[in-house]
Write a structure and sequence with these properties.
The complex is a heterodimer of chains A (815) and B (116). Chain A is α+β, with helices and mostly antiparallel strands and 815 residues long. In chain A, 32% of the residues lie in helices and 18% in strands. An eleven-stranded mixed β-sheet of chain A has the order 1-29-2-3-7-8-9-10-18-19-21, covered by helices on one side. In chain A, strands 4, 5, 22, 25, 26, 27 and 28 form a seven-stranded antiparallel β-sheet that branches. A four-stranded mixed β-sheet of chain A has the order 16-17-11-20, with no helix packed on it. Classes of the chains: A alpha+beta (815), B mainly alpha (116).
Chain lengths: 815, 116
């Protein structure tokens, strides 16, 4: 009997330990199954890659390929793919990208499509529900339907997908990327739809910003004249992407003249909805090209640094693709075939984002209680109901019905009759117009482009997200095109929530492609963009949206001044920490602080500003004084808006507007601080804030270790926010308004400079991170410190597989 | 002698099986230890120790080897997730975990043998 008892006890203990070790999130703790994770045969140890630089040759059997493909991984693990046709090239691109970035691909699509709760549990349910309401999947299906119209492209997209799946097929549990093991789920097959969903993730990041709700509230509270005073649409000193010299002499699509700045009559109360979380407004990018008249070599130089959220693994994956049609090097996005930003021996191209507003909100007037019909020009119309099934880990599926109107999906629903529900009109939802070719062929054409004509033709396939495309070629041309599809809007249309009960509120068609602003070989010898307004006020179509002006104005000024430009000059401009915002605001602050009596600390802070050269260098203190003072002055000046924002969504003025008000309207009522009895003016606000900052900074000011680099705390988070997999406290300068716009976890996600010469092109580039997405790889974050230091790597546009300079890490033959 | 035989057999056979059958579950080492104790007879206490040592040797040794080749890159990161322990301690944690599972398996097996 005793022996039976002891056997049972031992068996029970064994089983208990096995169960505990296999238990996903035991006792509700977010802990992975520990035995599964820690065993060295299939657990995390298998992701510890040998740090071994010995070159190896591999032969990989991929029967789906039509011909032999050779791949050379250079010393930074950048694959150089040599294929005999594009389908094979994209197949192998999919295979290799999956090998190094599979979890990133999986989680990007899940996050966009609203499929996170399936693997991460109920706490992600609301996020998933919002993504479904935004109609991302149906938008992706629309795009995929268009891609299918182009047999060559869809075959290439399917080849990429098949390549990803060929990698997944041969995976054993031991080979799963580490994050799958930590979150305890399995990779799923890739599909062309997932590529389309990834495409929408870029649209979400770049062209889904909107301020209709806060703007409508602000308009309601302030009235038209104060509203227009606080929120002007253009900075008078703007320096647009396409310079004023370009004339616009074409017949425009007419818009019916009506004053849409009047709010819909039924907006009798403020809007209770909070706009959903959007991509950071201060993510921006720079690109420019200088022509031979401005360079030392006599050939053009092109530079591009797209600023995006910085993550590990990085958003970019470097690659070279060579086939008989193309030989191109650049960065790709894990999830899409081809190269997004790159160069070949004849041309180079790069992107910055266009801030034009292509997402508008419309109120819906329901015609029945079930919300299945709504009123449109007095008639009832039925909604299309799409039932979204959201899988939730450990729970039953959740069903959510999304109502689609002629405007788009109804995203915001109010309880009861408190307010009208609102539908989202988003350009990225639209099924692309029938075209000779679409997004992939647009990229393939650029990859194989030889001249300006090829570049210009390529845009015929491109819709969203709209980009400022810079171009330079070996034969001496430079150009800038505001590429993409833009709605034709009436003046002020889309700034505010619109009345969805009449078709008169709709967009008036789209700007014809030949009428988008563009510029080729301008007299000034350069083209440049940094997310500022696209065109001058003379451009006949209404442009509204979020535009960032300081960097653009500064870069245009610098390029104007430069001559005999070299690659080193271009690097210096990308790494330039100078802020035009500081240049314009600091003298105003100093003038207002000039006459007051100061403590020795205040005097020292004042002097630091006075001697400052407006560079946001990491080891200086003056940038902290500037930044903190401006933030405090902003809050005290617009205290009225902050108070209102406690109870509703409010629009906040742009920072340049504050500088303008401080300098030109110092006695405006906006400067009066509500909580005091006195009537303040600009000077009172600035003095009060400066003194407050001084008292806050008393200890830090004398601490030699406390500087801008430390204060701004730059970091690169892991894509899944696993703290152990990120890098923190990077000591680096930069400011949001400086060309080197590094702040928090945003900044130049890829720096590239391409110089042409009589033989072709020479390029340098870097992104922070590494080619491998595996935190156990030496190539996971090895380029972060070089990026911090402002270094660049040579980018090898190889001619043949044996054309390498440094010993490759790995060569593979796929057959 | 049998003790040493048990330890070595468990480490070698379990390791080889994992190598040839990559789909084996992580806890198969407990099953091997239990089966082994049916053939290599030890007292329950010794069986536990032998099972523990055999699996610890295999798990800890393999983890240490992988960590060595990786120059500690991953273990440093994983150590943070394991409550902030140094990465160099992770092979030891791995060894103890594997040892416990296999030790309990061997104990169960030897108790069954004793009963029979």
């Amino acid at each position: 009997m005793r022996s039976i008892l002891s056997i049972s006890a031992a068996l029970l203990c064994t089983i208990a330990l096995i169960v505990l070790g296999s238990w996903h999130q035991p006792f509700g703790q977010s802990i992975p199954p520990i035995g599964k994770l820690i065993n060295p045969f299939t657990g995390f140890w298998q992701n510890a890659e040998a740090v071994d630089n010995q070159h190896t040759n591999q032969i990989v059997d991929l029967p789906a390929l039509s011909d032999k493909v050779e791949v050379v991984f250079d010393e930074r693990l950048v694959p150089h793919i040599f294929a005999q046709n594009l389908e094979d090239a994209y197949y192998v691109q999919g295979y290799i990208t999956a090998k190094y970035r599979l979890w990133q691909m999986d989680i990007s699509v899940r996050a966009t499509a609203g499929q996170l709760a399936e693997v991460m549990g109920p706490r992600l349910l609301e996020r998933d529900r919002l993504q479904r309401r935004k109609g991302i999947i149906s938008a992706a299906e629309n795009t995929l339907a268009a891609w299918k119209e182009s047999p060559e492209e869809i075959a290439q997209i399917e080849a990429y997908s098949a390549g990803v799946n060929a990698w997944i097929d041969q995976l054993q549990e031991a080979d799963y990327p580490l994050e799958f093991k930590l979150l305890n789920y399995q990779p799923e097959y890739w599909s062309p739809l997932k590529s389309a969903i990834f495409n929408k993730s870029m649209a979400e990041a770049l062209c889904a910003r909107h301020s209709d709700i806060p703007a409508t509230n602000a308009m309601r509270i302030f009235g038209d004249s104060l509203f227009q005073f606080l929120y002007p649409e253009r900075i008078p000193t703007q320096s647009p992407v396409i310079p004023d010299a370009v004339a616009y002499d074409f017949e425009t699509i007419s818009t019916e003249e009506e004053n849409t700045s009047d709010l819909p009559a039924d907006l009798s109360s403020v809007i209770p909805f909070r706009p959903f979380e959007m991509a950071d407004p201060s993510t921006g990018s720079n690109n420019w090209a200088v022509d031979g008249t401005k360079t030392a070599s006599g050939y053009p130089i092109l530079a591009n640094d797209p600023h995006l959220g910085l993550t590990l693994p990085a958003i970019w994956y470097e690659i070279q693709i060579q086939t008989p049609e193309v030989n191109c090097y650049g960065v790709s996005l894990p999830g899409l075939p081809a190269i997004i930003i790159g160069f070949n021996e004849n041309i180079s191209w790069g992107n910055t984002n266009v801030g034009q507003d292509v997402l508008d909100w419309y109120t819906i007037q329901w015609a029945n209680e079930e919300k299945t019909t709504y009123l449109l020009d007095g008639e009832t119309k039925e909604v299309d109901l799409i039932v979204e099934r959201i899988k939730v880990r450990g729970q039953e599926d959740v069903l959510d019905t999304v109502r689609y109107t002629i405007w788009g999906p109804v995203v915001y629903e109010a309880d009861g009759d408190a307010y009208k529900d609102m539908a989202m009109r988003w350009l990225a939802h639209d099924q692309p117009d029938k075209k000779p070719f679409y997004e992939l062929a647009y990229l393939t054409r650029l990859m194989g482009g030889k001249n300006y004509e090829d570049y210009l033709t390529a845009f015929n396939g491109y819709d969203t997200p709209a980009q400022n495309f810079v171009f330079a070629s070996k034969d001496g041309d430079i150009a800038m095109t505001i590429g993409g599809k833009f709605p034709v809007k009436e003046n002020q249309q889309g700034r505010f929530v619109q009345d969805g009960s009449t078709k008169a509120s709709a967009w008036n068609g789209f700007i014809p492609r030949e009428q988008v602003p563009k510029d080729k070989n301008p007299a000034r010898g350069f083209v440049a963009s940094a997310n500022q307004h696209s065109a001058s006020k003379d451009y006949p179509y209404y442009y509204n949206g979020g535009f960032d002006e300081y960097r653009g104005r500064y870069i245009n000024r610098r390029l104007e001044q430069m001559s005999k430009v070299t690659v080193e000059d271009m690097k210096a401009l990308q790494l330039d920490n100078y802020s035009l915002a500081a240049e314009e605001a600091t003298p105003i602050l100093l003038a207002l602080l000039d006459s007051i009596s100061k403590s020795s600390l205040e005097q020292s802070m004042y002097d630091s500003l006075k001697t400052w050269n407006y560079q946001f260098e990491m080891d200086w203190k003056a940038p902290i004084v500037f930044r903190k003072t401006m933030q405090a002055v902003y809050k005290e000046t617009f205290d009225e808006i902050y108070t209102l924002a406690d109870s509703m969504e409010m629009l906040f003025p742009e920072e340049w507007r504050l500088v303008d008000l401080l300098g030109n309207y110092p006695s405006h009522a906006i400067f009066d601080i509500q909580e005091t009895d006195a009537v303040e003016q600009a000077k009172d606000v600035v003095v009060r804030c400066f003194q407050k900052i001084a008292s806050e900074m008393e200890e830090e000011w004398t601490d030699p270790a406390f500087d801008w680099g430390k204060y701004k705390s730059t970091r690169i988070n892991h894509l899944g926010f696993i703290p152990a997999f990120g890098v923190y406290n990077l000591m680096v300068g930069g400011y949001k308004d400086a060309p080197n716009s590094i702040k928090g976890s945003h900044g130049p996600s890829w720096r590239m400079i391409v110089a042409f010469d009589e033989n072709g092109s020479k390029a340098e580039g870097i992104y922070p991170g590494g080619q491998s997405g595996n935190p156990g790889s030496p190539y996971y974050d090895h380029t972060v410190q070089p990026w911090v230091k402002g270094e660049y790597y040579p980018l090898y546009l190889m001619k043949t597989p044996t054309d390498w300079i440094n010993q490759p890490l790995l060569t593979q033959t796929y057959q | 002698m049998r003790f040493i035989l048990f330890v070595l057999l468990l480490a070698v056979v379990s390791g080889a099986l994992h190598f040839f059958l990559p789909f084996l579950p992580w806890w198969s080492v407990a099953l091997f230890a239990a089966l082994l104790s049916l053939f290599v007879k030890l007292s329950p206490a010794l069986a536990f120790v032998a099972g523990f040592l055999g699996a610890a040797l295999l798990w800890g040794g393999y983890a240490y080897y992988l960590d060595f080749l990786n120059e500690g890159i991953l273990s440093a990161r994983m150590g943070i997730l394991f409550g902030g322990i140094p990465g160099s301690a992770l092979p030891l944690v791995t060894a103890v975990f594997g040892g416990l599972v296999a030790g309990l398996g061997a104990l169960t097996g030897s108790l069954i043998v004793k009963k029979l």
